[in-house]
């Protein structure tokens, strides 16, 4: 199992003082698990964790920077670098949201999404890809993705909006399903 917690020092990044790895970034292959730091800005409840499943450490670093710039509530970002580890972590149900890469080396993000949904995973998933093909977008939505984002279009505000919307939509769907079960 590979997981990382990413928290960047945004003031250092703004000054152009970013180290090779941002503050508190630990490459996934160097660890088995990492807990969030104990400072008050990083005290994040389990419901406010985002799982990133992507085999590219540079993408993980970029997503970490974008998440750090969110203006709303803070999120902890955990990174799984492969299909099997990502699916295992996703199925724990410990995440508010999953950001899932379309191309995962030996695996495929759509396959992972379908497998997770077949096992009734309640976590909303946003598919990330460099592919601009409409068929990929449609396949993602048909497979149960909450959204589809092209990596080159990633910006802090648009990613935060997509994350917030996917989480709110999943919560509303869950409430509706609970009401339906009670009345039915």
Task: Please identify which CATH superfamily we are dealing with.
Answer: Response regulator
The fraction of residues assigned to DSSP E strands is 15-25%
Order of helices and strands: HEHEHEEEHEHEH
Amino- and carboxy-terminal Cα gap: 40 Å
Tell me what you see in this structure:
The chain is an alpha/beta fold and about 180 residues long. The protein has one domain (about 10-184): 3-Layer(aba) Sandwich (Rossmann fold). It contains six helices and seven strands. The protein has helices at about 10-15, 55-70, 85-90, 110-120, 135-140, 155-184; strands at about 50-55, 75-80, 95-100, 105, 105-110, 125-130, 145-150. It has a five-stranded parallel sheet with strand order 2-1-3-6-7, sandwiched between helices. Strands 4-5 form a two-stranded antiparallel ribbon. The N and C termini lie far apart (about 40 Å). The model is unreliable at about 1-40 (pLDDT under 50).
């Amino acid at each position: 199992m590979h997981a990382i917690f990413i928290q960047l020092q945004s003031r250092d990044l703004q000054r152009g003082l970013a180290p090779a790895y941002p503050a508190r970034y630990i490459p996934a292959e160097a660890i088995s698990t990492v807990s969030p730091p104990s400072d008050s800005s990083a005290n994040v409840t389990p419901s406010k964790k985002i799982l990133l499943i992507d085999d590219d450490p540079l993408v993980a670093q970029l997503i970490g920077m974008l998440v750090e710039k969110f203006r709303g509530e803070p999120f902890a970002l955990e990174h799984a670098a492969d299909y099997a580890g990502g699916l295992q972590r996703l199925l724990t149900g410990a995440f508010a949201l999953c950001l899932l890469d379309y191309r995962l080396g030996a695996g495929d993000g759509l396959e992972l999404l379908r497998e997770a949904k077949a096992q009734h995973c309640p976590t909303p998933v946003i598919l990330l890809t460099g592919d601009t093909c409409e068929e990929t977008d449609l396949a993602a939505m048909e497979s149960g993705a909450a959204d589809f984002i092209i990596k080159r279009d990633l910006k802090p505000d648009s990613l935060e909006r997509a994350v917030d919307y996917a989480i709110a939509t999943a919560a509303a769907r869950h409430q509706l399903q609970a009401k339906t079960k009670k009345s039915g």
